[in-house]
Design brief:
mainly alpha; 9 helices; globular; MIP; transport
Length: 252
């Protein structure tokens, strides 16, 4: 069978990215909003890790399984992904994330009286700092956390998905566990973004403060991803020789 017959089309890849981001947002944010008081921080962190793991194995072989604009940018900076394809991926991810929170809202319309209003008044699991931070952390803490944790996340992804040095079929597990760890460490700081599509999706329904603070969770995960991509390329790839991304579950 020819490569043309087996290579997914651009449209198929974009649908896969939208579906993966939808799963991440719907599953993990849904857990935070509906069951957060029951499962706590550990349960919410696991929800993020498990949904990304499932998405990687389901749709990673089609699109590479980014499901996150910061990951797309980080891979492009590392030479693993074409910059020309990044805008389409990012748009698909934002649409998928927004669909996830929209469906949570639709479910909430048929929930207990006052549930949806309370969820929105509480910020709808949006990212935030200052008064919107779960632990009362300020803007500086949010900026440092988003740069640092996104950079760590992208570096792990680039390492475990390397065509020669990577962990082959276990990459999705490593990525899912890394995302779980990141949420365990940073939910108290700013509700953990490391993913602008996730932040946009919740801010849409989180009220004025969430929208006003959204810029932090758009800018600084991208900064962290760029730092990681460029650092990986400089330190771990031979000069002038950057390997292509493998076909299976490449990234978050």
């Amino acid at each position: 069978m020819s490569d043309a017959a087996t290579t997914p089309s651009t449209a198929t890849k974009l649908v896969a990215e939208a579906l993966g981001t939808f799963l991440l947002v719907f599953g993990a944010i849904g857990t935070a909003l509906v069951a957060g008081e029951v499962v706590g921080v550990l349960g919410i962190a696991l929800a993020f890790g498990l949904t990304i793991l499932a998405g990687i194995y389901a749709w990673g072989p089609i699109s590479g399984g980014h499901f996150n604009p910061a990951v797309t940018v980080g891979l492009a900076a590392a030479g693993r992904f074409a910059w020309k394809d990044a805008p389409g991926y990012i748009i698909a991810q934002i649409i998928g994330g927004a669909l996830g929170t929209t469906l949570i809202v639709l479910i909430g319309l048929f929930g207990p009286e006052g549930w949806l209003t309370a969820a929105q008044d509480g910020g709808f699991a949006s990212n935030g700092f200052g008064g919107a931070s779960p632990g009362g952390f300020g803007l500086g803490a949010a900026i440092i956390a988003e740069i640092l944790f996104t950079a760590i996340f992208v570096l792990i992804i680039l390492g475990v998905t390397h065509p020669q040095r990577g962990t082959a079929g276990f990459a999705g597990i490593a990525i899912g566990l890394t995302l779980t760890l990141i949420h365990l460490a940073s939910i108290p700081i700013d509700n953990t973004s490391v993913n602008p599509a996730r932040s946009i999706a919740t801010a849409l329904y989180g009220g004025g403060e969430a929208l006003l603070q959204l810029w932090v969770f758009l800018v600084f995960p991208i900064v962290g991803a760029l730092v990681a991509g460029l650092l990986h390329r400089a330190l771990f790839e031979p000069k002038g020789s950057v390997p292509p991304a493998p076909k299976e579950a490449r990234v978050k």
